[in-house]
Design brief:
Largest sheet: 7 strands, parallel
Strand order of the largest sheet: 4-3-2-5-6-1-7
Number of domains: 1
Radius of gyration: 15 Å
Oligomer: single chain
CATH architecture: 3-Layer(aba) Sandwich
Helix content: 40-55%
Number of strands: 7
CATH class: Alpha Beta
Distance between the termini: 9 Å
Length: 184
């Protein structure tokens, strides 16, 4: 896994904020892995990953912990312990219900990470996304939970990014950073 020092501030404030992180398409997968690695290293933190990019099984191969619950919205879903499958990934209500189930499993405070708001914007109108972010962000704040929204700059309408910024405590734009592609 790559060391991504530009994400250290996100890790430092993850427990008490709702944040929007804008990345480029080359950064997204490594950024998710980096955030999970750093946040899971803190043993008192539960993470709920809403994953559109990777199936739960693949994530659990990398991170073997009971502090991670995955709401699996990916294309290659397989039932896995500590994963909640969402079959209709275009259905925002189904995703919200799955996140509620994840919070019931942990019965604790947690950090929700959306690995790609972009996917939601493909299937839903800007107004639906705005409502979702508004209500979900407020719910996270009222319940003293945290949320990290990841979004890629080049594949999302600018209006959605600007709207999401309004509801977040902190926003970061790392999309212009150069990322070298290393052989893995």
């Amino acid at each position: 896994m790559q060391d991504l020092p530009y994400l250290n501030e996100i890790v430092a404030h993850a427990k008490d904020k709702v944040m929007l992180i804008t990345l480029n398409s080359r950064q997204i997968n490594d950024s998710v892995d980096f955030l999970l690695s750093k946040l899971l290293a803190n043993n008192d933190t539960y993470i709920i990953l809403v994953s559109f990019l990777q199936p739960a099984q693949k994530v659990f191969e990398k991170f073997k912990t009971n502090k991670l619950i995955i709401v699996d919205c990916s294309e290659n879903q397989e039932p896995t312990e500590n994963a909640i499958i969402v079959r209709e990934t275009n259905n925002i209500t189904q995703i919200q219900i799955a996140i509620e189930k994840a919070f019931e499993k942990i019965d604790s405070k947690g950090i929700v990470i959306f690995d790609s708001l972009n996917i939601l914007s493909i299937y839903n109108s800007g107004k639906d996304i705005e409502r979702f972010i508004y209500f979900f962000t407020n719910k996270m704040k009222l319940t003293n939970n945290s949320c990290i929204y990841l979004i890629t700059q080049n594949s999302t309408e600018k209006e959605i990014i600007e709207m999401a910024k309004q509801f977040c405590d902190k926003t970061f734009d790392f999309s212009k950073l150069y990322v070298s592609i290393e052989a893995k």
